[in-house]
Each structure stands twice: as C-alpha cells, then as structure tokens.
Amino acid sequence: MAQAPLNIVLIGYRAVGKTTIGALLAQRLGRRFVDLDAEVEAEAGESIPALVQRAGWPEFRRREKEAVRRYAAQRGLVLATGGGVVLDPENIAQLQASGRLIWLKATPATIKTRLQQEATQVANRPGLTAQGTLGEVEEVLAAREPLYEAAATVTLTVDTAAPDQLAQEILNLVTVWEQATP
C-alpha cells in the first residue's frame, strides 16, 4: 500500500509569499492548501491583530501551536506557516516529521517593499516590537534567520522570482522527493 505523500511546509518571514506560492503549488499538485494563520483567525473568530490586542502574543502562539499539531498529523497537505512558527522547537519537530520544509527567503529590503506596497499587509500584521511592522523587519529577521535555516530542507530566494516560477521550482523538488521515496 502506497504511503500518503509528505506535507510541503512553507516557512519564512512575513510577506515572502508563503500564501500565494502555497496556493499555486497546492493547485498544481492537486492537494489541499492550508494557511495556518488563516486557520487560527477562523478558529478565534477574529483577526490576528485583534487576537493579539485582546489576548496577547502568548494566546496567539498557543493557538498556532495547536494548529501546527493538528495539521502536521495529516499528510499530503501544502501548509503556509506564520513567520514566527520557528520560534517553538516543538512546532518545527512536528512539521519536519510530517514533511519537507521550504524556507522562502527574502532580504529585508524586499520584505519592506512588499509590506509598503500593500497597506493592508501592514494593518493585518501586528508589530512584534515597539518599532512597528516596517521598523522591526531587520531586527526580527536577523534573529529568525538561523531558525529558518536550521529547520529548512531547502531554501529558495524569492526576491526576484515570480510566485509562479517559485511554485514550479517547488513542484520540481516534490517530484524528485516523491520518486526517491519507496
């Protein structure tokens, strides 16, 4: 009996394209796409900024961890994680056990440009530091990069590549991985 395919898990900082690329990839693979931040929002009945304002970051991280646990227990999904999922080693262990982690990596300049291009992006992402969403990019990214690197099976730079191109690159990787798995 064939084993269900591994999950494809997209990790990386805010605004690197995890949701866009994940949806494209899932469509091409014929798999279910799950955006973990969207799942947390749906279950909480409120946006992440509202949840964080009402209950704080610890409550958001608790809900995120529960979503990771639930979806990592499934197979054959394409998952887009929140940027801070790598802060919890248990999240990473569960995600690695369920599939391949792909770090979508961008420079701070690219991230800031993307956040500035869409005002709703900034509004929908609560600040992680007192500097605010745009001011914190370099500091928070520098702290998280070693965690993304340690967690990732593969790293793809997204600065100049189109989402369609990146989805195709990942699809090519998935094809190789699945052919190598008995």
Write the topology of this structure:
Elements: E1 7-11, H1 18-29, E2 32-35, H2 36-44, H3 48-55, H4 57-72, E3 77-80, H5 89-98, E4 99-105, H6 108-117, H7 119-123, H8 132-135, H9 137-151, E5 154-157, H10 163-180
Parallel strand pairs: 1-3, 1-4, 2-3, 4-5
Derived structural class: alpha/beta
Question: What count of domains describes the coordinates?
Answer: 1
SSE pattern, N- to C-terminal: EHEHHHEHEHHHHEH
Count of distinct strands:
5
Q: Would you give the CATH topology?
A: Rossmann fold
| CATH homologous superfamily caption | P-loop containing nucleotide triphosphate hydrolases
Shape: globular
The Cα radius of gyration reads 16 Å
Describe the main β-sheet briefly: 5 strands, parallel
CATH hierarchy class name:
Alpha Beta
Euclidean distance between termini CA atoms: 11 Å
Return the CATH architecture. Answer: 3-Layer(aba) Sandwich
Continuous helix count: 10
Features:
10 helices; Rossmann fold; 182 residues; 59% helix; alpha/beta; 5-stranded parallel β-sheet
Characterization of this structure:
- With 182 residues, this protein is of the alpha/beta class.
- It has one domain (7-177): P-loop containing nucleotide triphosphate hydrolases (Rossmann fold).
- Helices cover 59% and strands 13% of the residues.
- It has ten helices and five strands.
- It has helices spanning 18-29, 36-44, 48-55, 57-72, 89-98, 108-117, 119-123, 132-135, 137-151, 163-180, and strands spanning 7-11, 32-35, 77-80, 99-105, 154-157.
- Helix 2 packs across helix 4 (57-72), helix 3 crosses helix 4 (57-72) and helix 4 (57-72) packs parallel to helix 5.
- The longest helix is centred in the C-terminal third of the chain and has 18 residues, at 163-180.
- The termini are close together.
- The model has no long low-confidence stretch (mean pLDDT 89).
